[in-house]
Amino acid sequence: MSPAADRAPGATLDVRSITKRYGDVPAVDAVSLDIEAGEFVTLLGASGSGKTTLLRIIAGFADADEGSLLVDGQELRSVPVHRRDIGMVFQNYALFPHLNVEQNVGYPLRMRKVSASERRRRVAEALEAVRLPSFAKRRITELSGGQQQRVALARAIVSRPRLLLMDEPLGALDRNLRDALQLEISRLSRELGLTVVNVTHDQEEALTMSDRIALLDKGRLVQFDSPDDLYHRPVDDTAASFVGESNIFRGAVRGDGSLDVADGVVYSPPSLVDGSAVGSGAVAVMVRPSLVEITLPGRAPEAHSRVDGRVSGIVYAGDSRKIIVETAGGAELIARENAARPLDVGVGQPVTLHWDPRSSIVTRLADETATTAASAPTRKSVSA
Ligand code: ADP
Ligand code: MG
């Protein structure tokens, strides 16, 4: 049989209203995810948002208090860990240091009493897949971090699991290795048709690797969408501030379509001014820093949203540079421009940031109670 023919295809995973409490506080709060066969899904969220807890529940290392987990339509919660048919990769590799590469990768097959010859064949196949074909006899201690993680990945896929779970698999690696392995894991999981649930707190990693991202905040699912939708259509200010850089203004939309903002005028997008999407409640207006322009005070076009401030920092990052502007009210805003452009502002200089209202997105406020009078942009929206 060809490797393709005897491979089990990825399973569907239906996470239904899973809740897990430690004490009174839910670490995972009624999370539902309908994951398709062969889909690469990333659980994204800040530290403590419940990612590992949810992954451990899927793996079987912890049980939920409520909810159900259906794999290919069958309840998983009553199935013991070793019978769940799941591959796992952890941040710290978790390899056996006294075994060589081949023995590590073959370990799950040994546990299943697969014959030695079949084991050799499948270990060789798995090492081929992670591009370490000549490493079978190497000791684990002779491998770099990146190579160890490839071995861990080979061990996770060698028994052809229906689901592959990964908890911050690239967290211990340096930037370049991380980028390379990101691409490789995506390639491999797609080649093998694996259904993957990956965990990270790194939004770039999530945006690069995933078919869909489940954004978690304090145990709750904020949004479950494609990277593109999450970036361009965040459901609320939490999603907007977590994914991509953003400037966020909070307030109620007035009759003329503007928000009440201390250091300037912020218009909501014309299409939403009298739309029911806004209503009369408090909203967030969000604009991405790459869509913000910078000019001298008084020079912004009349129809543009504009906020006055003073340049407080200029930071270069690869092809772009970030101009940080602090308003009189103490809020920090960001404009991001192409680094090839001549720099025409300096630190300390008074400036106006402005943008076409059509560049803005209006979203819900995750926590409306805390924002009745708030009109300044949120500080946490400003990320490096
Ligand atoms: P993440 O992986 O997103 O960083 P975790 O799932 O590890 O988050 O944790 C979510 C919340 O649950 C945190 O507040 C954490 O302190 C709590 N928590 C996780 N595991 C336990 C445990 N075994 N006992 C008590 N609290 C826990
Ligand atoms: Mg974690």
List the helices and strands and how they pair.
Blueprint: E1 13-22, E2 25-35, E3 40-44, H1 51-59, E4 66-71, E5 74-75, E6 86-90, H2 101-111, H3 116-129, H4 145-157, E7 163-167, H5 175-192, E8 195-200, H6 203-209, E9 212-217, E10 220-225, H7 227-232, H8 237-242, E11 247-252, E12 258-259, E13 264-267, E14 282-287, E15 293-295, E16 305-317, E17 320-326, E18 332-338, E19 350-355, E20 361-363
Parallel strand pairs: 3-8, 3-9, 6-7, 7-8
Antiparallel strand pairs: 1-2, 1-4, 4-5, 9-10, 11-14, 12-13, 13-16, 14-20, 15-19, 16-17, 16-19, 17-18
Helix pairs in contact: 2-3, 2-4, 3-4
Bound molecules: adenosine-5'-diphosphate (ADP) and magnesium ion (MG).
The site of adenosine-5'-diphosphate (ADP) has 10 residues, from helix 1.
Kindly describe this structure.
One of its GO terms (molecular function) is transmembrane transporter activity. This is ABC transporter ATP-binding protein. The chain is α+β, with helices and mostly antiparallel strands. The protein folds into 2 domains: 4-228, 3-Layer(aba) Sandwich (Rossmann fold), CATH 3.40.50.300; 247-379, OB fold (Dihydrolipoamide Acetyltransferase, E2P). It is 22% helix and 31% strand. The chain is built from 8 helices and 20 strands. It has helices at residues 51-59, 101-111, 116-129, 145-157, 175-192, 203-209, 227-232, 237-242; strands at 13-22, 25-35, 40-44, 66-71, 74-75, 86-90, 163-167, 195-200, 212-217, 220-225, 247-252, 258-259, 264-267, 282-287, 293-295, 305-317, 320-326, 332-338, 350-355, 361-363. The strands form 4 sheets. Strands 12, 13, 15, 16, 17, 18 and 19 form a 7-stranded antiparallel β-sheet that branches. It has a 6-stranded mixed β-sheet with strand order 6-7-8-3-9-10, with helices on both faces. The protein has a 4-stranded antiparallel β-sheet with strand order 2-1-4-5, with helices on one face. A hairpin with a 2-residue loop joins strand 9 and strand 10 (220-225). Helix 2 (101-111) runs parallel beside helix 4 and helix 3 (116-129) crosses helix 4. It is elongated. The N and C termini lie far apart (51 Å).
